[in-house]
Amino acid sequence: MYLWASNMRRFLLILFFISLISLSGYTADAQCSICAKSVQQMGDKPAKGFNSGIIYLMLAPFGIIGFVGYRWWKSREE
Fold it and tell me: How many structural domains are present in the chain?
């Protein structure tokens, strides 16, 4: 029982730090050099939208992997 509580505490701590970092407002530049150069010619607002779109598309695989990992972890726990 103690091992389970320790693992759960560690999991919640990691989850807290990940959510804190993701909500901190730090902007990431997720464009390759060719995309960045062509989008910068269109202006600042399209460049920010393009960058947000790339980050949004990047989150989907991480969400799927997280869900599969969570289900795997829950099935091993029983």
Answer: 1
What is the SS3 string spanning 8-62? HHHHHHHHHHHHHHHCCCCCCCCCCHHHHHHHHCCCHHHHHHHHHHHHHHHHHHH
* Domain extent for 9: 2-77
How many CA atoms lie less than 13 Å away from 39 in the CB half-sphere? 19
How far apart CA 75 and CA 43 sit, in angstroms, is 49
Predicted TM-score (pTM) of the model is 0.45
Q: What is the pLDDT along the chain (78 residues), one digit of tens a residue?
A: 555 567 778 888 888 888 877 776 656 565 677 777 777 788 888 877 887 888 788 888 888 998 998 888 888 865
C-alpha distances (whole Å) from 36 to each of 2, 33, 49, 54 are 50, 5, 12, 12
